Amino acid sequence: MSFEGRGAQRVEGENLLAFRVLDNEDQVIKEGIVKTLDISRTGIAIEATTSMEAGQKVELTIGFGDDVVKARGSVQNTKEIGDKKYQIGIQFDFLSEDDLSKIGMAYPSVLK
Fold it and tell me: Could you tell me the CATH number of the domain that includes residue 75?
């Protein structure tokens, strides 16, 4: 599964991810737990049972083994892939170097 226009190398991987979609006043309007499809140093693709709109702000908490990575991002695109099933591309707006290193420990090619 892929979207057009990706600039960074993506690595396929399934991890649990908790998300919170925020409105313009940073109030939570939607939240849930989904699985990741792939990840790179610049973003992540998830599979969800609810759609998200391009431009929406999202807070992410991703589990990588014993490590947890927190990030903020923006929805770039949404593609319906089945009945109430969506592939959503999220670009990271903030990911600390420490959290990028944690991702790199699970998926070394992300750091290349």
Answer: 2.40.10.220
